[in-house]
Structure formats: C-alpha cells, structure tokens
Amino acid sequence: MSENLPRVETVVDDLYSLPPADFVSHRAAYVTRFKKAGDKAGATRIGALRKPTLVAWLVNTLARRDESALAELFDLGEQLERAQQRGDGPRLRELSTARSASIRALTDRAVSLGRDLGATVGDNAAREISSTLNAAMADAEIRDRVRAGRTVVAETYSGFGPALLSIVPNSSDDDDDDEESDPASPEVEDDRENTDEAERNRLLAELESAESDLDTARTEVDAAQADTERKASELRSAATEVEQIEAELEAARARAQAAREAHEAGVVQAESTAEALEAARARVVEARSALDSLT
Q1: Longest dimension (CA), the chain
Q2: Which of 30, 172, 198, 281 could form a disulfide with 131 if both were Cys (CB 3.0 to 4.6 A apart)?
Q3: CA distances from 290 to 276, 284, 294, 295 (A)
Q4: Distance in angstroms (rounded) separating the CA atoms of residues 229 and 235
Q5: Cα three-residue angle 117-29-208, rounded to 5 degrees
C-alpha cells in the first residue's frame, strides 16, 4: 500500500518555514520519501527547491507571523502608486513617510523574530530585509514570493515606482517644498548607495545559496557513490556465494554419478552371482540324482 504523501505545496511551505541550517536535511528526507512512494515528479520539484539565505528566512518568518502587517504595507504601496499616477505631491509625501515608518517597523520585527529564534542578525541583514520589503512594494513577483513566505534571497528593486519614492514631487501649490523635492538631495544619494549595496548583498546571498546547493549536490553524489560501492560489494559477495554453491552442486553431481555407476556395477554383480547360484544348485541336483541311481 503506497504512503499517504503530503501535497507538494504543503512540503514547500514547510521547508521555507525552517531555519536555513535545517533546510537541506529536511529537503533530502522529503525527496527520499517521495521517491520511495513512486512520486518522481514531486521528488524532482522538491529537490530543485533552493535553500533560503538567512535574510530570506527572516522575511519568510515575518510573512507567517505578521501577515496583516505585510498586507498593510502592500496596500500602502498601492496607494503610493495611485498618488504617483495622479501627481498628488502632498499625498505622495505623506504616504512615503508612512511607507518608511512601516518598513522600519517590519524590519525591526523581523530582526526581533530572528533573534528570538536563535539567529544572529547584523546590520547588513537588517538593511537587506528593508530592501526586500521595499522591492516587494514595487514588483508583483517579489511581492507574491514575500506574501507566500517563499523568499529565497534578499531582493532589490531597480526600476521606477513606489519602492524608490523617498523624495516626491511638489504639486503646483507647494512651492515652499522645492528644496525637499530636489532629486540631487542627500536622501536620494543615500537611497542610491543603499540600492547598490543591497544589490551587492543580493548577489553575495545568491552566491552563498549556490555554494550551499553545490555542497548539497556533492553530498548527494558522495552518498550515491557510497551506495553504488556498497551494492557492488554485495554483488561481488553474492557472485562468490553463487560460485561456491555451483562448485558444491558440481561435486554433488559427481558423487551422484559415482553412486549410480556403483549401483549399476552392483546390479551386474548381483545378477552374475545369482546365475552362479542357479548353476551350483543345478549341479547339486544332478549329483544327488546320480547318487540316488547307484543305491
């Protein structure tokens, strides 16, 4: 009877809820389980899942623990986009301030969750969490991954839109804020530097994930080679046992043939002895007859 397997989607959610240190071993266990149950497609999909970085795991944990807060952030992003399309400067500035505060609060929450779970979370990780949340506001694909708790690496947004709005344009009746909306202001420069650093961190995270997957693949190859060698040894042992059995069988056949030949020789000898006995009896009868005739 085949094993009652969980849905692949359930397995994916389970794996991406685990700390990165536990991901590889649990993934391998699931792959083995699905293979044994005959679900090769499920095993292949699970085996292809990438190990999340520490930052990705923290974002995934945040998505599971504070789903409503994330929903509010993404709703704020939609409001920012609509205000930008309308060219509503005051509203853009208001929403941009709210967005920054929300991302800071969620980043602090993710860092706190990670530390509560025993992870060491530094300043770089905190910046990458903020970058990922920022990117999720502007990019639908990133947002879907974050909302589902299936982020793999720290994300960045390199396009235009709400995710990069830290300085917003003035409306026609807000001339007093020209200095604040200057695109060359230090805040814009800081955003650019943070974006560049976040991109470098993302690439480093991808490299770390790729190296982790390579280590996993090497481990699996080593295990497969060890299993192959074990089976080859078992095959050699079985072949030796077969040879021994065949030799014993051949010896038994030789003994059986010798016994048959001895039996046949015994039969011939017995027949010859019986004939000699009959001849002797005949002579005895003749001798007695001759003796009787003389008396």
Answers
A1: 174
A2: 198
A3: 21, 10, 7, 9
A4: 10
A5: 55
